[in-house]
């Protein structure tokens, strides 16, 4: 994987809000068919990084290279046109419309002759997008009747309509049940198997270890860790997130280690559900 050219390169990216440095000299390569998890405590710059890659925020300094070309993104639309799609936390829908209508909201397909809505074409494309996720949601179901997990699936399907090369997901499993989370993680693995690349922001380490191929740790706006999942563990990631280095430190040797053990138990349950969802 790392023998190829990166799909995305961030070179010395910094983002300032007034006198506050949200991101400090971020340099990171993202390769095709990876699921890269961005982890860290609240306020360390994870969402700012996603918003910068998506074009929602412009960096104060630094360069972004996508498919070997330097890009300067000024909007989400520009990013979409390049093949970078984002599903933000708390994706909004029109509850009075059905699934198919929400999938094409703002980018409706029209008949060439009379410019009326081509509902048949939209229904066909909506079915294809949901089938790509092996999802059984009916396209004419009103959005207001869907669960949080089903809404997350519709958000993923809407994103797939643009056929993105790079997918950015901001806390996709937040507020989901265990089963709904397993389904969402299963969708991510399926998208990777189809050749797509994912950058994932997530607080939940069991979710991260269940689905990611690489983990990048942010602390105080800087990258302090960058590991293949197979070469790291909960303890190392949490130490990097918290800045605790001493293995004998009571803070991490008691309550945090207990929490790690509970997370590992939860991870086994979640992996079983993911395997079941993938069948």
UniProtKB/TrEMBL annotation:
Cited PROSITE patterns: ABC_TRANSPORTER_2
Organism domain of life: Bacteria
Record's keyword terms, sorted: ATP-binding, Nucleotide-binding
InterPro entries on file: AAA+_ATPase, ABC_carbohydrate_import_ATPase, ABC_transporter-like_ATP-bd, P-loop_NTPase
Coiled coil: none
Domain ABC transporter span(s) in chain numbering: 8-245
One annotated GO molecular function: ATP hydrolysis activity
A UniProt-annotated Pfam family: ABC_tran
Name of the protein in question: ABC transporter, ATP-binding protein
Source organism (scientific name): Gardnerella vaginalis JCP8108
């Amino acid at each position: 994987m790392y023998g190829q050219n990166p799909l995305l390169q961030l070179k010395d990216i910094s983002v300032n809000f007034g006198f506050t440095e949200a991101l400090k000299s971020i340099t990171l390569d993202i390769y095709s068919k990876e699921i890269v998890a961005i982890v860290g405590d609240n306020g360390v710059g994870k969402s700012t990084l996603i918003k910068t890659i998506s074009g929602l925020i412009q960096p104060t300094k630094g360069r972004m290279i996508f498919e070997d070309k330097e890009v300067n993104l000024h909007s989400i639309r520009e990013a979409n046109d390049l093949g970078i799609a984002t599903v933000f936390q708390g994706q909004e829908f029109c509850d009075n419309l059905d699934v198919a209508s929400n999938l094409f909201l703002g980018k409706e397909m029209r008949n060439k002759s009379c410019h009326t809505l081509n509902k048949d074409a939209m229904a066909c494309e909506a079915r294809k997008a949901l089938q790509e996720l092996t999802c059984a949601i009916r396209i004419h179901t009103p959005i207001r009747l869907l669960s949080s997990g089903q809404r997350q699936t519709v958000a993923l399907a809407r994103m797939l309509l643009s056929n993105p090369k790079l997918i950015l997901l901001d806390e996709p499993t937040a507020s989901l049940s265990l089963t709904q989370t397993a389904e969402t993680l299963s969708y991510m693995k399926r998208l990777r198997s189809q050749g797509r690349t994912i950058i994932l922001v997530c607080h939940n380490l069991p979710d991260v270890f269940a689905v990611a191929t690489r983990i990048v740790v942010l602390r105080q706006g800087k990258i302090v860790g960058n590991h293949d999942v197979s070469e790291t563990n909960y303890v190392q990631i949490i130490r990097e997130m918290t800045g605790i280095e001493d293995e004998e430190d009571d803070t991490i040797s008691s309550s945090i280690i207990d929490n790690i053990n509970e997370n590992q138990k939860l991870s086994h349950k979640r992996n079983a559900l993911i395997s079941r969802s993938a069948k």
